[in-house]
Amino acid sequence: MKSLLHSNPLKIAGVCIGLFLLLYLSYFSLIFGVIDTSWQTAIDAYTHFNGSNEHIVIKEVRVPRVLNALAVGASLGIAGALLQSLTRNPVADVELFGLNAGAALFVVFAVTFVGISSLTAFTWISFLGAAASGLVVYLLGSLGRDGLTPVKLTLAGAAITALAASARHGMLVLNEKALDEVLFWLSGSVGGRKLEFLQAVFPYMAVAWVGAFLLARPIQTLLMGDDVAKGLGQRTLLVKVMTGVVIVLLSGASVAVAGPIGFVGLVTPHLARYLVGVDTRWVFLYSGILGSAILLAADIAARFIAKPAEVPIGAMTALVGIPFFIYVARKGLEKK
């Protein structure tokens, strides 16, 4: 597969450009909004806090929003790259495969019937939901004489996503208080989230990021086929299980912070492979950077497209992701 950046120096330069883009988007997100501020105001909010509206907005709203978008975007991008590599399915995504839906379903159940509000419990429930839905999708996709296939995985993911959405709506109809608490969260948003949410899940995100890059070489070998990987001495089942654990951590942590946000993990691996080729180490790195950039850009657009109202960020990512999904799906059918 030909790539735009075909040498390591060019790829390193691309990383530097990507990081600069993240800094620029972070600056834009921090300074502009319903209340426009300045870079000096942002600095003064931490060095000479005076209780003004501008300082409160910077500390309590803008900074958590930027950090949430960076962390969740990177996690979704890397999770999508891992999932596409593991399943060898170009339309794989934590949203399309039901992981986000399962995590959201478990959280809504806990809020509706158990009344859980603890950040720690919230996080673990999200992880459990993502793991449970992922396992069900895998089992359903493995049924039949052909075994596990990309088409069956996609159909199983769509079925679980629809089932989880119906169950969530049914629960919320029964409990109007829970509806008020989780409605905006369910449509996906990095706004209105306290920094404590990110602090609660960030250790898991960081471990999963490191795990993804440690798994990059084994996954690269696995992409050559199970038989070849076993012939080279790889314990393929262990690699698949560890990859699944990392995906669950990334997906569950992202849902706990921002709700179910789709299509970021679908788009970013394709863009990363277009830029750097099929080397999984570079693909995972670029997917993380691109995921953060896409989510930050979507969040900025969500604030300005209907100003002073705000569009859920999940709707903004869907505007890009759905046409991309159709394009990738049609491209795959044409190859057949």
- CATH homology superfamily name: ABC transporter involved in vitamin B12 uptake, BtuC
- Low confidence ranges: none
The helix tally amounts to: 14
Please bin the fraction of helical residues.
over 70%
Pattern of helices and strands: HHHHHHHHHHHHHH
Task: Identify the CATH architecture.
Answer: Orthogonal Bundle
Shape: globular
Whole-number tally of structural domains? 1
Instruction: Tell me the name of the CATH class.
Output: Mainly Alpha
- Percent strand: under 5%
Determine the structural class based on helices, strands and strand pairing: mainly alpha
Could you give the distance between the termini?
A: 18 Å
CATH topology: ABC transporter involved in vitamin B12 uptake, BtuC
Calculate Rg over CA atoms: 20 Å
Number of strands: 0
The largest pleated sheet is described as: none
Mean pLDDT: 86
Compact description:
With 336 residues, the protein is mainly α.
Which key phrases capture this entry?
336 residues, mainly alpha, ABC transporter involved in vitamin B12 uptake, BtuC, 14 helices, 78% helix, globular
Explained architecture:
This protein has 336 residues and is mainly α. The protein has one domain: ABC transporter involved in vitamin B12 uptake, BtuC (Orthogonal Bundle). It is 78% helix and 0% strand. The protein is built from 14 helices and no strands. The chain has helices at residues 8-31, 39-47, 53-87, 99-114, 119-142, 150-174, 176-186, 195-214, 216-222, 226-231, 236-258, 264-276, 280-304, 313-335. Helix 2 packs across helix 3 and helix 4 packs parallel to helix 6.
